[in-house]
Amino acid sequence: MADKRDYYEVLGVGKDASEDEVKKAYRKLARQYHPDVNKASDAETKFKEVKEAYDVLSDGQQRARYDQYGHIDPNQGMGGGFGGGDFGGGLGDIFDMFFGGGGGRRDPNAPQRGGDLQYTMTIEFKEAVFGKESDITIPRTESCDTCFGSGAKPGTKPETCSTCKGSGQQEFVQNTPLGQMRNRRPCSTCSGTGKIIKEKCTTCSGHGKVKKQRKIHVRIPGGVDDGAQLRMTGEGEGGHRGGPAGDLYIIIRVKPHDFFVRENDDILCEVPLTFTQAALGDEIEIPTLTEKVKLKIPAGTQTGTFFRLKGKGVPHLRGSGQGDQHVRVIVVTPSKLSDEQKELLRQFSSHDGAHTHEQEQSFFDRMKRAFRGD
Predict the structure, then answer these.
(1) Residue 197's Cα: distance from chain center in Å?
(2) Which residue from 92, 112, 94, 114 is spatially nearest to 103, judged by alpha carbons?
(3) 0.70 surpassed by pTM
């Protein structure tokens, strides 16, 4: 065994190191050389060397024999040695130590949170603006009311698995060129549950869970928009072994409106005007989300002009107040005119000809300047 490094040297501690110092050094090196963390070609070899050194120095009797005889164990003869190539729980032990049981020592009977659910709800435009209350029905798993989630027939109870002694796992030893490796797998007898149900509940067939249609009352706040997500705590899948239920996430889809368009908390709409209304001015009625209001159109209003109706938009989802409504007016050119109307327009054009020509010239001048880059 002369090719083996001194165990104290491997861990980087002195021969008078305490148990805590040995353990601290091991944790540091095990994390450093763990093959799932360190991808170097020699990482696994170094990791096993560190593990072997720790197995010996952390055991009082083995450490005493090592201090007296070195790598040659008198109880095993010249061909033996300390550690024997058996690396205890293998790589899983390191995950147990550093990552909270990731190596498979998690209690199979510990409470487990239920899964989350998602439901898409389509509502009308005004329902999104002012809010809505509604009942929805969702399918989800819940604890069986007959066996209260145990899976066992009423009057009986699950028994501890005799194969894994309730751990939910079996240990397998594999011989490798580097020694023995121990691996843990879910128990084949109890499928990793740690329990055996000899008499199953007839309602849930031993699963402890049943599918149910659950009616839930939903309150949608005013001001939600398309794509909003509402979270309902505890309305998801039922938990396992007394664990809490998951959550329900409701995705809101809002139908478009025939007249209104929403932009954040503002409402946009377009209103047609006749040529006469735009030229001479008028007072018109505008529909809002709650009522009709009067809007004064000044004489000479051009098509595309926006008017603002303050406070007639969507209520703010968080906080008080609400957005505005913006009205865009579109001057509509008549497509059918009577002979009398045509004559009146000709007369108007003849009286406004100079002005019209001047406007056209001004317009073409602006176009020329734009093309020249002025």
Answers:
(1) 35
(2) 92
(3) no
Helix 43-57 with 19-33: angle, nearest 10 deg? 170
User: pLDDT tens across 318-364, in order?
Assistant: 778 899 999 999 998 888 878 887 787 788 777 665 444 444 455 45
Angle between helix axes 60-69 and 43-57 (nearest 10 degrees) is 100
Q: Are 208 and 239 spatial neighbours (Cβ–Cβ below 8 Å)?
A: no
In this structure, what token pair is assigned to residue 292?
């009709």
Q: Would you state the pLDDT for residue 364?
A: 53
Mean pLDDT check: name the lowest of 89-103, 132-146, 303-317, 345-359: 89-103
Using CA atoms, how far residue 341 sits from 170, 288, 352, in Å, is 97, 34, 16
Cα angle 191, 105, 157 (rounded to 5 degrees) comes to 45
Cα-trace Rg, the chain: 40
Contact status, residue 236 vs residue 112, Cβ threshold 8 Å: no
DSSP-derived letter for residue 237 is S
CB 92 within 8 A of CB 101: no
Interacting residues of 67 by C-beta distance below 8 A, sequence separation 6+:
15
